[in-house]
Design brief:
Dehydroquinate synthase-like, alpha domain, binds nicotinamide-adenine-dinucleotide, 2 domains, two-stranded antiparallel ribbon, single chain, Rossmann fold, 45% helix
Length: 324
């Protein structure tokens, strides 16, 4: 109650300004009336972008900025991101750069954006050279999480995001892992636990110089898998396979307690995530792109035991033949 009062007070400060609500077409189709009702006491504009990663581009960035200019946005106005990670990353990047920065509020509407992308201040867009290469760190005034938005989310969006929830549990919270193993899971409680962990990590290392790298657990192979398949496999599903391979590797080099794999199997079964099958060697060439120089060691995150991860330096060839 205290928090919702504070939020209403915050919005009341914008009575004389304009709210620019950025969302995507899918969300707009479902929530148009809701948004119009929610912000009816304010002067606001709804800016609707195309859904999906294709909107995290310089072209859409420029087009959206121009739309804001055309609607006479002022530096004192407020940007509201209402959507998943795509909307949040783009709207946050706009908020961080237009007029050298305006205030923004993030209202995440997907499980991934509630647990992960809305926390930590990373914003940005993709370049033809790769994902998330252009961006700024820009913290929202606050993140407003309402799990009711999850009711309209497609099954695969929820399922794939569970990989990132499991990830934060594996790297830093046995408590979250134990909770995920319970028979009945409450979304709000699960999200609160995941957010707390991500918040602790990014507060300790806001610019990804050390600890924040732990959040890349499973992403060495995860990124390689999605890149190899031209991003046709959802990020979360690729990360799930990447975590499986990283755990196999950790066990192989005696850095990971075998119990971790047993628990991972239970969680994947429960949350309908797939383990890695096939030949992992075919993804090795894609991993190279994570490194600055060919001879550099690779930073690789291993889980020592449930809730505890560490970064180790490895050579690329160490990852050969993991799936055999
Ligand atoms: N900034 C960060 O720290 C960070 C971290 C992780 C991921 N990301 C980024 O997040 C993006 C992925 O985010 P995402 O998984 O939320 O994808 P997304 O934003 O593309 O949303 C997934 C789909 O769900 C739809 N949708 C969103 N909310 C809905 C709702 N409530 N009901 C029905 N449909 C809804 C969207 O229209 C879209 O089609 C990627 O671009 C990734 O790079 C950023």
């Amino acid at each position: 109650m205290g928090n919702s009062l504070k939020i209403e007070e915050f919005f009341l400060n914008y009575k004389k300004n304009t709210l620019f609500i950025i969302t995507d077409k899918n969300i707009y189709e479902i929530y148009e009336n809701y948004l119009k009702e929610r912000f009816k006491e304010f002067k606001f504009h709804l800016i609707v972008i195309e859904p999906g990663e294709q909107s995290k581009t310089l072209t859409v960035y420029e087009k959206t900025i121009n739309e804001l200019m055309k609607k006479e946005m002022k530096k004192t106005d407020l940007i509201i991101a209402f959507g998943g990670g795509v909307v949040g990353d783009l709207a946050g990047f706009i908020a961080g750069t237009i007029f050298r920065g305006v205030r923004f509020v993030n209202i995440p509407t997907t499980l991934l954006s509630m647990c992960d992308s809305s926390i930590g201040g990373k914003t940005g867009i993709d370049l033809t050279y790769g994902k998330n290469l252009l961006g700024v760190y820009k913290q929202p005034e606050f993140v407003l999480i309402d799990t009711r938005y999850l009711e309209t989310l497609k099954r695969e969006e929820y399922e794939s995001a569970m990989a990132e929830v499991i990830k934060v549990g594996l790297i830093k919270s046995k408590e979250l892992i134990d909770y995920l193993l319970e028979e009945k899971i409450d979304n709000l409680k699960m999200i609160q636990m995941a957010v707390k962990i991500k918040k602790e990590i990014v507060e300790e290392d806001p610019y990804e110089e050390n600890k924040r790298m732990l959040l890349n657990f499973g992403h060495t192979f995860g990124h390689a898998i999605e890149s190899y398949h031209n991003y046709e496999i959802k990020h979360g599903y690729s990360v799930a396979k990447g975590m499986d391979l990283a755990i196999k590797y950790g066990i192989k080099i005696n850095k990971t307690n075998k119990e971790v794999e047993v628990v991972l199997n239970k969680l994947y079964k429960k949350f309908k995530l797939e383990k890695f099958t096939g030949d992992s060697n075919k993804y090795l060439s894609k991993i190279k792109y994570d490194k600055k120089n060919k001879d550099d060691d690779l930073n690789f995150v291993v889980i020592a035991e449930l809730g505890r991860a560490k970064i180790i330096k490895i050579k690329e060839e160490d990852l050969n033949d993991l799936s055999s």
